[in-house]
Amino acid sequence: MTLHRLCGTAEMADGEARRFDVGEHRIALVRLADEWYALGDRCSHADISLSEGEVLIEECALECWKHGSSFDLRTGEPQSLPATRPVPVYVLKVEHDEVKVELP
Ligand code: FES
């Protein structure tokens, strides 16, 4: 496993989602207050970038803008149809004001 820097903690606002491409990994990074989450940035229903969707703060989820499935930021599991399969969840490390993702 190696750590790859995604951004500084001051670079993203509370409630924001942003896409990062690291090698072949397409990552949707989400900030909720002081919590950070990273999902695979490809909806499991079709090839849509989840980071272009809406962050659902109370549900701790990211909603796909295309057909409305939302994915739990903690587990990657879909919470609503039409998506039925989870998306990957990435492990993050936040240290020294930097957000890093663990990749194989
Ligand atoms: S493409 Fe995401 S729910 Fe259909």
Task: Tell me about this structure.
The relative contact order is 0.26. The chain is globular, with a radius of gyration of 13 Å. The protein is an all-beta fold. It has a three-stranded antiparallel β-sheet with strand order 1-9-8, with no helix packed on it. Helix content is 0%, strand content 44%. It binds FE2/S2 (inorganic) cluster. FE2/S2 (inorganic) cluster binds next to loops. The site of FE2/S2 (inorganic) cluster (FES) has 10 residues, from loops.
Q: What is the strand content?
A: 35-45%
Strand order of the largest sheet: 1-9-8
Low-confidence stretches: none
General form: globular
Arithmetic mean pLDDT: 97
Whole-Å distance between the termini? 4 Å
Kindly name the structural category: mainly beta
Radius of gyration: 13 Å
Ligands present: FE2/S2 (inorganic) cluster
Number of strands: 9
Number of helices: 0
Largest sheet: 3 strands, antiparallel
Helix content: under 10%
String of helices and strands: EEEEEEEEE
Attribute tags:
0% helix, binds FE2/S2 (inorganic) cluster, three-stranded antiparallel sheet, globular, 104 residues, 9 strands, mainly beta
Give a short synopsis of this structure:
With 104 residues, this protein is mainly β. It contains no helices and nine strands.
Topology:
Layout: E1 2-8, E2 17-22, E3 25-32, E4 35-40, E5 54-56, E6 61-63, E7 70-72, E8 92-95, E9 98-103
Antiparallel strand pairs: 1-9, 2-3, 3-4, 5-6, 6-7, 8-9
This protein binds FE2/S2 (inorganic) cluster.
